[in-house]
Amino acid sequence: MAVFNALGHPTRLAILGWLKDPESFPPQDQPASEVGVCLKHIQARAEVSQSTASQFMATLQRAGLVTCTRIGQWSHYQRDEAAIAALGRHVSLAV
């Protein structure tokens, strides 16, 4: 399942945790609670290159764990709370 592969990397798992509190990132032009966190802020916190941050977010997006909003040239990401809750229910049923 793509979601478990996405969560299998410690940095991607950390990013998903960080996005739970978007206001913990530096201020943006648009409120992070509304549009998500800009990739450049995720990149800085993860201490990875822009391309690596993009790959991490693409993996999380393909797994359905985050959504992306484009504003101009910038990509903003936020957790898909409904998908994460459904995953939690699915995992708890399997145990």
Q: Looking across the biggest beta sheet, what order are the strands in?
A: 1-3-2
SS elements, strand count: 3
Give the count of structural domains: 1
CATH superfamily: Winged helix-like DNA-binding domain superfamily/Winged helix DNA-binding domain
Assign the structural class, choosing from mainly alpha, mainly beta, alpha/beta, alpha+beta, or little secondary structure. Answer: alpha+beta
Which regions contain 5 or more consecutive residues with pLDDT less than 50? Answer: none
CATH class reads Mainly Alpha
Helix content: 55-70%
Number of helices: 6
**Helix and strand succession?**
HHHEHHEEH
- The fraction of residues assigned to DSSP E strands is 5-15%
The CATH topology: Arc Repressor Mutant, subunit A
The termini sit apart by: 16 Å
In angstroms, what is the radius of gyration? 13 Å
Main sheet: strands, sense, barrel: 3 strands, antiparallel
Mean pLDDT: 92
Tell me what the CATH architecture is: Orthogonal Bundle
**Which geometry do the CA atoms define?**
globular
Domain HTH arsR-type: 1-95
InterPro entries: ArsR-like_HTH, HTH_ArsR_DNA-bd_dom, HTH_MetalResp_TranReg, WH-like_DNA-bd_sf, WH_DNA-bd_sf
Organism: Plantibacter flavus
Protein name: ArsR family transcriptional regulator
Keywords:
Arc Repressor Mutant, subunit A, 95 residues, 3 strands, 6 helices, globular, three-stranded antiparallel sheet
